[in-house]
UniProtKB/TrEMBL annotation:
Domain Glycosyl transferase family 3 N-terminal: 11-72
Native source organism of the sequence: Rubripirellula lacrimiformis
GO cellular component, one term: cytosol
List of residues binding anthranilate 1: 87, 118
Cofactor dependency: Mg(2+)
One Pfam family matching this protein: Glycos_trans_3N
Protein's UniProt name: Anthranilate phosphoribosyltransferase
Primary gene name: trpD
Biological or metabolic pathway of the protein: Amino-acid biosynthesis; L-tryptophan biosynthesis; L-tryptophan from chorismate: step 2/5
Binding, anthranilate 2: 173
Source organism phylogeny: Bacteria, Pseudomonadati, Planctomycetota, Planctomycetia, Pirellulales
Catalytic activities: N-(5-phospho-beta-D-ribosyl)anthranilate + diphosphate = 5-phospho-alpha-D-ribose 1-diphosphate + anthranilate
Free-text remark on how the cofactor is bound: Binds 2 magnesium ions per monomer.
Length: 339
């Protein structure tokens, strides 16, 4: 017979089953207990499933992220503006690692980037998987990650390495085999404290909640992205909606292919079955091969450049991104990251 959940967990589980949201501090304390290894797998699993069935609230995201941030290994740096392109994942689109390529091209345009990510969970290729294929050492210690960020202006923050306390919940998450609260937390817990985020979300509901959560947690300026075609990226197929979040509040921006000066691209043209295929696509893009994959990376990068104030419009951003690729600066930045 399984052990009974601790009273605080049982109370929260019952609360969620009644359809009541948990408070910020309450959620933070529960996640703290999980990340210290003090909670039983049964208690953790029951709570995560109860929150999933109810629908995770903004307060629960904020509380969980606050706890996660307390436990993560921080990356120090000197940058006043620092970009992350980590999204929530879970769109099921099967595309190559667009946001990872965008991070590298943005860095080639002179933007400091701390790309947060992990191995694949809900996708065919996680950012860690594709970077490993591209020759990047993803398992670096925190001081080496910080040194890379300061010396070349880009680093990879490997979630499995820099969130060591997550080892206490990895087993139960695997057993559950479904998306939970933790799947939404990656972009909210950048170890380098990114000031600007181009943050993809897989559903309009997740977009709304994550935008509200990141506003409460604090950001200089972020774009929380969701595309009409279901992609958690800036898409050239139909319309992409970006919720712009600053300390002053939120506003909504929309883009279509014509805003970037590019042709429409369907998601089927962006498919990659595994990290090896994804890496090969990124290498071809950085070798200046034209086509829909390149255009999609240019669109994402242009949104990132607008976000950090490098350009006044996404059309200007598209030109800057294209030049960084065509002049070999993106390829060079990847080589630096892998050296």
């Amino acid at each position: 017979m399984s052990a009974s959940p601790a009273p605080s967990f049982q109370s929260a589980i019952d609360q969620a089953h009644r359809g009541e949201d948990l408070a910020v501090d309450q959620t933070s304390d529960l996640i703290d207990s999980m990340l210290r290894g003090d909670a039983s797998e049964d208690a953790v699993g029951e709570l995560l499933l109860a929150l999933r069935a109810k629908g995770e609230s903004v307060a629960e995201l904020v509380g969980a992220a606050t706890a996660m941030r307390r436990h993560m290994t921080r990356i120090s740096h000197h940058h006043d503006v620092l970009l992350d392109t980590c999204g929530t994942g879970g769109s099921g689109s099967g595309t190559f690692n667009i946001s990872t390529a965008v991070a590298i091209v943005a860095a080639a345009c002179g933007v400091a980037v701390a790309k947060h990510g992990n191995r694949k969970a809900t996708s065919l290729s996680g950012s860690a998987d594709v970077l490993e294929e591209l020759g990047v050492r993803i398992e670096s210690e925190a001081d080496a990650v910080a040194q890379r960020l300061d010396s070349i202006g880009i680093c990879f923050c490997f979630a499995a390495k820099l969130h060591p306390a997550m080892r206490h919940v990895v087993g139960v998450r695997r057993k559950l085999g479904v998306k939970t609260l933790f799947n939404l937390l990656g972009p909210l817990c950048n170890p380098a404290g990114a000031t600007h985020q181009l943050l993809g979300t897989s559903t309009p509901d997740a977009q709304t909640k994550v935008a509200a959560a990141i506003h409460q947690l604090g950001t200089t300026r972020s774009f929380v992205i969701h595309a009409d075609d279901g992609q958690d990226e800036v898409s050239l197929d139909g319309t992409t909606t970006a919720v712009e979040v600053t300390s002053g509040g939120q506003q909504t921006l929309t883009w279509s292919a014509s805003d970037f000066g590019l042709l429409p691209v369907g998601a089927d043209a962006l498919a990659a079955a595994n990290p090896s295929e994804s890496a090969a696509i990124i290498r071809r893009i950085f070798a200046a091969e034209p086509g829909p994959c390149r255009d999609t990376v240019i669109a994402g990068t242009s949104a990132a450049l607008l976000l950090v104030g490098k350009v006044p419009t996404v059309a200007d951003g598209a030109k800057m991104a294209a030049a960084a690729i065509d002049e070999g600066r993106a390829s060079e930045k990847l080589a630096q990251l892998g050296s």
